[in-house]
UniProtKB/TrEMBL annotation:
This is Kumamolisin. Belongs to the peptidase S8 family. CDD domains: Peptidases_S53 (cd04056), Pro-peptidase_S53 (cd11377). InterPro entries: Peptidase_S8/S53_dom (IPR000209), Peptidase_S8/S53_dom_sf (IPR036852), Peptidase_S8_subtilisin-rel (IPR015500), S53_propep (IPR015366), Sedolisin_dom (IPR030400), Tripeptidyl-peptidase_I (IPR050819).
Length: 540
C-alpha cells in the first residue's frame, strides 16, 4: 500500500522572503494599538500571468483582433499549477480560500489578523487618521515563501488605508435650498449640449454597449437618475450596481462621494443614453480599487467595452506592486478590446502632494490608460459655438493635472509627441499625461442632479465619463470595440482641436504650459467627435 501524501505545512514552502515592490511606509497617522488578533480579514493574492502579453499588446499598434474573455482566461490567466500552489500555501497557514479566478489571476483568502500576520510575516496595527477614522496599516514589506516569490505578483488587503481621491469639484456653495449658484447655472452645460459643441455623432445612442464605472464610495438614487434624464428629454439609461469586496451603493449627501457617482452616471448616460451603465462599488483601498477594475474587466455577464475611472492619486502614494498589478490589468484591457478612461487630477502639477515637486496622477499615468485632462470652455453669446477653450487653471487647488511620469517610460506611441523632460530634474522623459482633454473647470462645468439637488460640478472626473460615452457611441458603429486607441490617435493629431493657452503650474517653477501640438496640460487636445469616429471606424 502506498503511503498517504503528507499534508503540507507552512514550512514546506520554504522561508519567508520580502515580496519585491510590497514595501510601504507606516500610515501618516497616529499609531493606536496592534490590530485585534481575532478580527477576520479578506486578502487578495494576485498571481503571475501564464504567459507574456507582449506579443499581442504593444505600445506601437492597436490590437487588431481583441481576445474573448474566455480565450484570455485560458491563454493569459493564472496557470492551474500556480493557483493550486498558492491555495495550498493558504490552507497550510489555516487561511480559507473564499474566491478564485483564473482570468483575474486572483485568489482571495480569509483569516484572522493573527493568522494573516504569521502567514505574511508582517505586523498589522490600527492607526487613527486626522479625520478620526480608524484604519489598519503595516510598515515594510509583505513576506511570502521563497518558493512562491516568483508566482505571487502582489498581496492586497492587509493594509486598508484610503488609496485614492475622487477628482470632482462642486462649483460654489452647496445650498441647502437645493438650488445651484445662479452664476454657475448660466455658465454650465448638460452632456447633450457638450455633445453638440464637441461635434459628437448625433445618430447613435450607445445601444448594445456597456460602460463600466468604478466607484470607491458614495452611491446613487434611482429617483435622481429618472428626474435628471427626464429634464434632458432623454430616456434614462439602464443603471445597475455590482458590489465588490463589501462595497455598497450607499448614497449619503452631495458633499461626499455621491457627487462623483452621479456625475459619472449622468455624464456617461447623457452622452450615450442607450448604453447600459454598470457601477462597480468597492472600498477605497488599493485592494478594493484593483478588485473593482479586474471584476469589471473580466465580467462575462455585463461585458463592458469601456471603463471610466474618476478616482486616483499621485504615483508617489502607490506601492510598486500596486502600480505593476494595475498596469498589467490595463494591459489586459487592451488585449480584450476594452478602453480605460481615467481622470488626470484636479490640483495641477502638484497633484495634492505638497513636496514642492511636480507629480502625475495614477491610474491616468499608465501607458494603457486614456488620461483625461481639463479645460475651461466659453461659448458664443447664443451658446451654439465655442468662443475659447483654454487650460483649466483657476487656482492652486483647481487646475488640470498633467506632467511626466516618474514611473512609466515614454511609450512608443508618444515618440513624435515632443514630450518634454520632467520639470523636476530637466532630464527624465517619461510617459506624458494627459492624452486628451475636455471641459473640467467647475466655473464652466456640468449641470447634474445629486441627492435631489441641481448642482454644477467640474473636475477631470467629468472628462473620463464624457470620453467613455463618446467611445460607446463609436463602438456601436463598429463591428468590435475600439479598445486601445492610443497608437491611432497619436498618429492622427488633427482629430483633436489643439489647446494652446494656459498652464497647470501649481508648484512654484514646476509645471507645464500649453503649446502647439501635444502638451502636458491638455494632451492632444479636445476630440472632434465626428473626426474621431471616422478615424476609429476606418482602422477597424
Amino acid at each position: 500500500m502506498s503511503p498517504l501524501p503528507r499534508k503540507k505545512t507552512a514550512h514546506s514552502f520554504g522561508p519567508l522572503v520580502p515580496l519585491p515592490g510590497s514595501e510601504r511606509p507606516a500610515p501618516a497617522a497616529t499609531a493606536s494599538h496592534p490590530a485585534s488578533s481575532d478580527e477576520l480579514v479578506n486578502v487578495t493574492i494576485r498571481l503571475r500571468r501564464r504567459q507574456s502579453l507582449s506579443a499581442l499588446v504593444s505600445q506601437s499598434a492597436s490590437v487588431v483582433k481583441p481576445l474573448t474573455r474566455s480565450d484570455y482566461a485560458r491563454q493569459y490567466g493564472a496557470s492551474p499549477a500556480d493557483m493550486r500552489l498558492v491555495s495550498e500555501f493558504a490552507t497550510a497557514n489555516d487561511l480559507s480560500v473564499v474566491q478564485k479566478s483564473t482570468a483575474r489571476r486572483t485568489i482571495v483568502v480569509r483569516g484572522t489578523i493573527a493568522q494573516l500576520s504569521k502567514a505574511f510575516g508582517t505586523a498589522l496595527n490600527d492607526y487613527r487618521l486626522a479625520d478620526g477614522r480608524l484604519i489598519r496599516g503595516r510598515e515594510g514589506a509583505v513576506m511570502v515563501p521563497d518558493s512562491l516569490v516568483t508566482i505571487i505578483e502582489g498581496v492586497f488587503g492587509l493594509d486598508n488605508r484610503p488609496q485614492a481621491r475622487a477628482h470632482f469639484q462642486i462649483y460654489g456653495p452647496v445650498y441647502t435650498t437645493g438650488v445651484a449658484n445662479p452664476r454657475a447655472v448660466a455658465t454650465s452645460f448638460t452632456p447633450p449640449q457638450l455633445a453638440k459643441l464637441y461635434n459628437y455623432p448625433a445618430d447613435r445612442t450607445g445601444k448594445g454597449q456597456t460602460i463600466a464605472i468604478i466607484e470607491l464610495g458614495g452611491g446613487y438614487r434611482k429617483a435622481d437618475i429618472a428626474a435628471y434624464f427626464k429634464s434632458l428629454g432623454l430616456t434614462a439609461p439602464s443603471v445597475k450596481a455590482v458590489l465588490v469586496d463589501g462595497g455598497k451603493n450607499a448614497p449619503g449627501d452631495a458633499n461626499g462621494a455621491d457627487g462623483e457617482v452621479m456625475l459619472d452616471i449622468e455624464v456617461a448616460g447623457g452622452i450615450a443614453p442607450g448604453a447600459n451603465i454598470v457601477v462597480y462599488f468597492a472600498p477605497n483601498t488599493d485592494q478594493g480599487f484593483l478588485d473593482a477594475i479586474t471584476t469589471a474587466l473580466h465580467d462575462v455577464r455585463n461585458k463592458p467595452s469601456v471603463i471610466s475611472i474618476s478616482w486616483g492619486s499621485a504615483e508617489k502614494s502607490w506601492t510598486p506592486q500596486a502600480l505593476n498589478s494595475f498596469n498589467q490589468a490595463f494591459q489586459s484591457a487592451a488585449a480584450l478590446g476594452v478602453t480605460i478612461c481615467a481622470a488626470a487630477g484636479d490640483t495641477g502639477s502638484d497633484d495634492s502632494v505638497g513636496d514642492k515637486l511636480a507629480h502625475v496622477d495614477f491610474p491616468a499615468s499608465s501607458p494603457f490608460v486614456l488620461a483625461c485632462g481639463g479645460t475651461k470652455l466659453l461659448t458664443t453669446a447664443d451658446g451654439t459655438g465655442i468662443s475659447s477653450e483654454t487650460v483649466w487653471h483657476e487656482s492652486n487647488t483647481s487646475a488640470t493635472g498633467g506632467g511626466i511620469s516618474d514611473v512609466f517610460d515614454k511609450p512608443d506611441y508618444q515618440a513624435d509627441a515632443a514630450v518634454p523632460p520632467s520639470v523636476n530634474d530637466g532630464k527624465r522623459v517619461g510617459r506624458g499625461v494627459p492624452d486628451v482633454a475636455a471641459v473640467a473647470d467647475p466655473a464652466t462645468g456640468y449641470t447634474v442632479r445629486v441627492d435631489g439637488r441641481n448642482l454644477v460640478i467640474g473636475g477631470t472626473s467629468a472628462v473620463a465619463p464624457l470620453m467613455a460615452g463618446l467611445l460607446a457611441l463609436i463602438n456601436e458603429q463598429r463591428s468590435q470595440p475600439v479598445g486601445f486607441i492610443h497608437p491611432s490617435i497619436y498618429g492622427a493629431p488633427t482629430t483633436f482641436r489643439d489647446i494652446t493657452q494656459g498652464d497647470n503650474t501649481t508648484v512654484a517653477g514646476k509645471g507645464y504650459s500649453a503649446t502647439a501640438g501635444w502638451d502636458a496640460c491638455t494632451g492632444l487636445g479636445v476630440a472632434d467627435g465626428q473626426k474621431l469616429t471616422r478615424l476609429l471606424t476606418t482602422v477597424a
